[in-house]
Amino acid sequence: MNRKTILVIILFLFALLFVVYKLVIAKPGGIAGLKVISDPNSSIYLDDKFIGKTPYEGRHSSGEYILKLTSEDGGSNNVPWQDKIILTSGTLTYIKKDLGSSDLFSSGEVVYLEAIDKDEIQLTITSTPDAAVVSIDGLEKGITPLNLPITEGEHDVVVNSTGFIGRTVKLKAVKSFRVVVKIQLALSPESTVSPTPSVPGTTPADTSPSPESSQTNKPYVLIKDTPTGFLRVRLDASLSATEVAQLTPGAKVPYFEEKSGWFKVAYEEGKEGWVSSRYAEKVE
C-alpha cells in the first residue's frame, strides 16, 4: 500500500468520524417552551413526572409527551385531564384547560407548531366533539377536522357546536410552520334543562313524530338525537344566526337545499330555516 493510498484512507476516516460527531454526538436535543394554564389550579405531570403547578411556564427538550393535569382543589370533584402533546424545538406549546365534573363538562385548547415546507403556513383544527363549526377572523371556514392555508400574523379562531359552549383561540401563524389547535368543548348547561323559546315572539315548532310526519315526501330531513334533546332552527346557515324554532329527534321535515354543514328545511308550513347537518340526515 503506497503512501497516497494511506493518506486517502486516513482522510476518509476523519470525514466519517466528523459526520458521526455531527449527527450523533454533537446533535442538539432542541429546547421548546411549555405554558400551561388551568381552572382550578392543577398539578402538572409530564410522562408521569411532576414538573410544577399551574400557571406554569418552563422549557423542556423537544419531543412527544403525555401531559396530565390534576386539580389542586381538594374539595372539588373536577376530573383529571391528560393527552399527548408535542413540543417543537424553538417554539411554545400553549395549553389552557377548564376542568369540570366530567369530560363532558371540561373544556380547553392545546396549541403548538409543526415545521413544514419553507414559506408555507397552515392551520389544522380538531375538536371534541368533532364536526364543530370553525370561524376564522369572523368568517365561517368549515367544520372540524379542518386543515387549510392561512396568512401570516395573528388570527381569532372561534369553534362552536350545537349544545356546547363555544371557544375562541387567539393564535399567531408564522412561515414554515403548521399551527395545530386541539379544542375541547364543554356541554352547555342548557342541555340539562327543558328547552324553552329563546327568541321573543316565537314558539318552538311542534315537530314530535306523528302519523303525518311519517308520510313526509322525499327528499326530507330526519332529525337525530342531540345532547340537548332538540335541534335549533336558524334563519341562516350560521351558529350566529337568529334561532326561530326547535325540532325534536325523530321529526321529518321537507328538504330544500344544503350548504357546508347545514340543511335548509321547512320547520312549519310556509316557514323555512336552517339546521346543522351534524344532528340531521337527508333522506332521498
TL;DR of this structure?
This protein has one helix at residues 3-25, and strands spanning 31-39, 42-46, 49-53, 56-61, 63-71, 81-87, 92-98, 107-115, 121-128, 133-136, 139-143, 146-149, 153-160, 164-165, 167-173, 177-184, 186-187, 220-223, 231-234, 243-247, 252-259, 262-268, 271-276, 280-283.
How many strand elements? Answer: 24
The total count of helices amounts to 1
Count of domains: 2
Q: Report how far apart the termini are.
A: 85 Å
Beta-strand percentage range: over 45%
General form: elongated
Helix-strand sequence: HEEEEEEEEEEEEEEEEEEEEEEEE
Q: What's the story with the biggest beta sheet? A: 7 strands, mixed
Helix/sheet category: mainly beta
Could you name the ranges where pLDDT drops below 50 across 5 or more consecutive residues? Answer: 20-28, 192-214
Helix content: under 10%
* Sequence of strands across the biggest β-sheet: 4-1-7-8-16-9-12
Q: Over the alpha carbons, how many angstroms does the gyration radius reach?
A: 26 Å
What is the average of the pLDDT values? 83
Region (Disordered): 190-219
Pfam family, one: SH3_3
Domain SH3b: 218-284
InterPro entries: PEGA, SH3-like_bac-type
